[in-house]
Amino acid sequence: MKRFMLMHFGFEKPTPEIMGAWKAWFESIADRAEENGGFHGGAREITRDGSRDLPMGMDSITGYSIIKAESLEEAEAIAAENPFIASIRVYEIHTM
Fold it and tell me: Fewer C-beta neighbours within 10 Å, C or N terminus of the chain?
């Protein structure tokens, strides 16, 4: 199986319904998930011109999941079931 990183975008204040939907999704992919993580403030972008704090909003990367799937299409189908806030980006992971 291949490995994919799902990058979760978008933040809104969690409600019990949102938290319940996320919990259900994580349970549904438990057999495929290698790692899940989230970001909670303290974000900073560093460029050649300096750095700036990043606010939590709809453009924010708010978390990630590393999953196993046979193909990009299968990983996309798994991601599509996620109760995402703004969007999810799917990347195949290549080991170096």
Answer: C
pLDDT tens digits, 50-78 = 999 988 889 989 999 999 999 999 999 99
Closest by CA position to 1, among listed 54, 51, 75: 75
- pTM for the full predicted model: 0.89
Q: What are phi and psi of 65, to 5 degrees?
A: -135, 140
